[in-house]
Amino acid sequence: MLDYSPFGCRTGFHLILCGEHDPIHVAKALKGSLKFIANEATWDDVQGTTIECCGNYRDHQLFSAKECSKKIVEEGIGSDPFDRKVVQESL
CA-CA distance, 14 to 35, in Å (whole number)? Predict the structure, then answer.
């Protein structure tokens, strides 16, 4: 993985990979990241929380990120964009 980060201000995230990867492996890695955010992340893990790092630093909401991550993990992450094939196990 080359990058997983915000795609500009407030526009979501992007994931950049090098080479070909199994969608199930990518889904498992994403699920693991979201579980970390939901259950373990603290303000020390959040980047861009100072005015020097981000012009919108006051908009960061760890609580909302945790709640959103929990919801995604509960609903499941699929391995196919056209057919609902939820990946069950994590890495």
Answer: 18
Give the three-state DSSP class for 87.
Answer: strand
What mean pLDDT is predicted for residues 59-81? 88
Domains of the chain are 22-87 (3.30.1360.80)
Separation of alpha carbons 22 and 82, rounded Å: 16
Give strand ranges (E) for 7-74.
Answer: 13-16
Q: What's residue 60's pLDDT?
A: 83
Using the Cα atoms of residue 51, residue 8, residue 2 and residue 32 in order, give the sign of their dihedral: positive
pLDDT at residue 38 in the model? 93
Joined tokens for residue 82:
């056209």
- How far is the first Cα of the chain from the last one, in angstroms, to the nearest whole number? 15
Q: How many helices (H) and strands (E) does the chain have?
A: 2, 4
